[in-house]
Every structure is written in structure tokens, then in C-alpha cells.
Amino acid sequence: MKSIIGIVGKPHTTYTDRYCICALDGYRRAVSNNGGIPILIMPTQDICYEETRPKFAKDLTEEEKQDLITQINLCDGIILPGGNRIYNYDIFIADYVLKNNIPVLGTCMGMQLMASIDCNQDREKVLEFIENKINHNQIPEKYVHKVKIEKNSRLFNIIGEEIIDVNSRHKYAITKVNNAKINAISEDGIIEGIEFENKKFAIGVQWHPEDMSLYDKNMEKLIKAFIESTKK
């Protein structure tokens, strides 16, 4: 039986200026191509996210939290995707899956969210603007820089290579972790990956493996390992 993988929906504006909650198609394809069934996890508050900054969003009610839990419980694993804003529902979902040992893969901002929960701080307090020589925000490029993977890590066990090439679409990077393990560093010293030991699967990477899995065998391995973990 295939695993159901929940992809947390993010606010977006269409070309006709209509608002929607969506997932980028790379996530859908990555899950579908590697043995999973993708579904969208929708926020439960009655607000317009495109018009509401996270700091002005209302707190989740207990009913709204329970509705999120109901959606999560439909899934065997969760993907925390990239994006530009982290809302209350993002924080609740990430915190819930980590505390309840639900397999989770965080990409880009999703990894930053995992790190902020690990440090019990707002995302902004664990981030710094990147001013290194490498431009980490090169959206169209298939490969941007190299990453060194810690040999004593689950990520290394999955990929089996110490140095890999990754894409890169971010301007900020995390500066610290608490209980999480740093498993990857870029060639200019940026933290590029974290993982939580003693979990079924809890890995965050700063790049976008969902898109790379369409052309890169290493990232296909990562997506497959995540989906496989949801079956155990």
C-alpha cells in the first residue's frame, strides 16, 4: 500500500490576482514518482493569508488546532515546504509532527522552521542574512554549490556520498541548533542540513530535493528514503 504524504499548503497569488493555498508541483511529482500519494494540508483559520502578515495573524483556536491534527492523522508523513512566510499553522504542524514522531522532511524554509522549533525561538532569531561569496539565491539553476555531508549522519547513510552538488534558493541561513544534529555544510560554511536522531525520519535540508529528484539520483534517494520511512 502506498503512503499518503501531506504537503503543507502555502499562500499564493495566481496570475489573475486570485488568492489560493497551494503546493509547488515539484513536491507533487517527487512524491508521486517515488511511491507516495500526495495530499494538501490546508490551514484552518478564516483569514486571507496573502493579505495578513504572520505577526498580525490571530492565534489558532483549539478547534483550529484539532482540525489540523485531523488532517495530519490522514497522512503517513509530512513535507514542510519552502516559502517566504511562516504562519501559526506552519509552526503548529511542524511542532506536532516532531513531538509525535511522525516522519517529516523539511526543505528550505521548512528546515528553518524545524531549527526554530528545536531552539524554541522565532525563526528570525535563528537566522542571519547570507553575505558570503556564493550567491545562494539562484532559482533557475540545477546546481549552485557543493555541500559536505557529515559521515556520521542519517543523511550520509541515505546518499552515500560526502560531497554533493545542490540547488539553492534562499537569502537567509540558520545559525544554530539545540537538540538537532547538523548533517551538512556548504562550501562557504552555511548550515545546509539538520536531522533529529531517535526519530522515524526527521531531516531538513536548505536546498530543494523535490525538484532535484527529477534529475539527480542523490535527491531521488532522499525522497525515497523519506517515503519508505513512513511505511515502518
Plain-language structure description:
- Helix 2 (62-72) crosses helix 3 (88-99) and helix 3 (88-99) packs across helix 4 (109-118).
- This protein has 7 helices and 15 strands.
- It is α/β, with parallel strands linked by helices and 232 residues long.
- The protein starts with a strand and ends with a helix.
- A 9-stranded mixed sheet has the order 4-1-5-6-15-14-13-9-10, sandwiched between helices. The chain has a two-stranded antiparallel sheet with strand order 2-3.
- The protein is 28% helix and 27% strand.
- The protein has a single domain (3-229), classed as Class I glutamine amidotransferase (GATase) domain (Rossmann fold), CATH 3.40.50.880.
- The longest helix is centred in the last third of the chain and has 13 residues, at 217-229.
CATH topology: Rossmann fold
C-alpha end-to-end distance: 12 Å
Structural class: alpha/beta
The portion of residues forming beta strands comes to: 25-35%
CATH superfamily: Class I glutamine amidotransferase (GATase) domain
The assigned CATH architecture is: 3-Layer(aba) Sandwich
- Show unreliable segments: none
CATH class: Alpha Beta
Q: What does the largest sheet look like?
A: 9 strands, mixed
Fraction of residues in helix: 25-40%
Separate helix tally: 7
- If you compute it from the alpha carbons, what radius of gyration comes out, rounded to the nearest whole angstrom? 17 Å
Oligomeric grouping of the chains: single chain
Number of structural domains: 1
Q: Could you say which overall geometry the principal axes of the C-alpha atoms support?
A: globular
Overall mean pLDDT:
93
Please report the total strand number as a whole number: 15
H-E string: EEEHEHEHEHEEEHEEEEEEHH
